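Attaching the record inline, Q. Sequence:
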Amino acid sequence: MRAKKTNSGGKLQLKWVRSSICAPTKQKLVVRGLGFTRLNQVIERPDTPAIRGMVAKVPHLVEIVE
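Structure, as predicted:
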């Protein structure tokens, strides 16, 4: 996982880059829990250990945008 912080005061910009159709149910729930609703969506979340842990569970589906 390439984790890079943005300059917006402890925020992470996350992008959903790969479909979760063939992913296990737990991974689908992690993607939904992060707040994604559609593919290629970019969202901003606070930079907390919980969010980083969720991203670490699905590094092949989600990437951190600079």
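The first helix runs from residue 25 to 34. The first strand starts at residue 11 and ends at 16.

More tomorrow.
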